[in-house]
Amino acid sequence: MARRRASQFLAGYCCSQSHSLVRRPPLCSQEPASISAPGLPHTHGKATSMFKPPSKLYRKLNSQTSCDIMQVHYSRTYGIHQRSFTSAAINIQRSPSFSKLNSDDIGYFKSMLGDKNVVQDEDRLSAANVDWMRKYKGSSQLLLLPRNTEEVSKILHHCNSRHLAIVPQGGNTGLVGGSVPVYDEVIISLASMDQIISLDKVNGILICEAGCILENLNSFLANEGFIMPLDLGAKGSCQIGGNVSTNAGGLHFIRYGSLHGNILGLEVVLADGTVLDMLGTLRKDNTGYDLKHLFIGSEGSLGIVTKVSILTPPKLLSTNLALLACKDFLSCQKLLLEAKRELGEAISAFEFMDSDAMDMVLAHMDGARNPFPSSSYNFYVLIETTGSDESYDKAKLEAFLLRSMEGGLISDGAIAQDINQASSFWQIREILAQIEPFVYEWTSTHRGSISAEHGLGLMKADKIHYSKSPETVQLMASIKKLLDPSGILNPYKVLPQSMLQ
Amino acid sequence: MKILVAVKRVIDYAVKVRVKPNKSGVETSNVKMSMNPFCEIALEEALRIRESGAAKEVVAVTVGPAQCADTLRTALAMGADRAVHVDAGAAPVLPLSVAKILRALVQVEQPGLLILGKQAIDDDCNQTGQMVAGLLKWPQGTFASKVVLDKEKQVATVEREVDGGLETLCLDLPAVITTDLRLNQPRYATLPNIMKAKSKVIKKVTPEELNVEIKSDLEVVQVTEPPKRKAGVIISSVDELIDKLKNEVVSCNILNCK
What we know:
The complex is a heterodimer. Helices cover 34% and strands 15% of the residues of chain A.
């Protein structure tokens, strides 16, 4: 199973990006839904402000019971759990406008793709029908493996004319059920399109197909002295096409920013089979509307990404990692601010977890060691810096940490002295990803929600109104209807059904 | 009692090592260097002995070029009291020369215990500890997986990991101990200790000052990568398997026979 790092957690457990704790509007009150962010560190350049957590909810989150529930879930359901079909659980009916597959369709696909790439085998289908969290299970009868853009185009052209719904699938590592069918949508897997097309060694511009696995791209780039600007726990399985379609963030977001900034061009196939070649490699290209941004983060609902042109930063040699302990949340926030100021551009990751999370890791991870065995602290922070000069960077980090300690921001800290120690620090953080599904379940039962770091997918398809105005959503629906009039691309997801009738 | 710990700066254990194109050695430029893992274990053991009250001072020592001071700073950050840096120039120093240098230092520092890692992960020599013990005529407990010090009797009980299992030795101090993997888990360098380390002393000496001549009797002729693993062959029938076993095969792994 691929290594995971959760990049989005509920307040008080684990987080690396901004999240908001959203309260649903009280049924009887007049006040609008309030969005409160319990002061979790914003790690992508926005000003950090001091929020007071909604006290009742925050207290609940921090209570012992939440931890107990998670431990019970963890030991009871780890690994064996299998859900019933998604379609049974949700309220959306299978759209009557979609046709059902028939033997002519299968025959056509077989003649076009070859028998091997038209999968109707039970076992392989069942794997592709279920998402990574095993929360969603579709009932697709067909998995297609196109080998190039032309085949993708022909598949979509056929499905569009036949009104067959489809789901584009990459590594199937999404956390909101966006990459698996709800009903019997045909699964179009990009896994066979895994060629690296070219790398501009001067600029670090990489052009590759959408099915390339992130870790493989990183290994290839490492040899040439570059790295991918994003780093996820799922990097052993996730594909770049999926990363682009979900605008994935990850651990290095704080340093390299969003895919909207790093993607220079895309090749996308539209619902009717039209191939849009927007595969530019220019850093700046102000000619016409910049359409690629529509597809980045559209979760496969506007088109299938088939090729990607991405700017890759140079691989820097010296990495330093420190695990720090803070006594309260305010210190963590101040620490982030100070880190950004004093470490500046060298900072490459800032991760945060609380004592419950740390205790859980130490209890369940083989060989896990508490770096601070003598005391227990309320919060822990991982700071990573990446630079070009080992001793200078280390000295800079040490000086910053010592100052922070003298200033009372940090209660204790340890600096990893070699790669092994760094891995063990990261492992503490990564293991927390396994708790994510249970935290989300608990959150939903307490009427909260995790906002759009992971996208909307199926899980939050009708929740978009919490963060976007009606006019905005209306325009999104119009664009969807324009690009996909038959609605065959990844239906039932992203936008509320009511908007698309 | 004073404990002397010898540590070595090597290519980090987790780095993928590459051979230089001219086959004269491995690529060390732009590669992460760290303290040898067995040396970390040696230092950790020394610190634990000091914390138990059986020793008063832990002195870290290394032999190598200027950059080795980083390793000594790590040792100080872990808790060593002071350090000695023997600057022997850029060329790699072989175990016998290191052993002679350590002997000279021991004669100056007069420790009750000299602890080293069992071997360095770059050359895998596993010689320095044994050579120093021989030169000093001190008892040695190598591949230590457990060390118990008796301060009163000035005796170290060392459990060694040997091929047949575990062997327990009783060594009269002063003695040389080399550490194996399962002896302990080294501590992390925490900020309070890093802060204290700033005021600790690293003394610099040269081999000449110790009256040690570094001459190498060994010359590295060539360094090459190990031969790449050859692809296996899928055999289609039992007859073919028997034929191959009779005629071709020296060693075989039978994985799949259709």
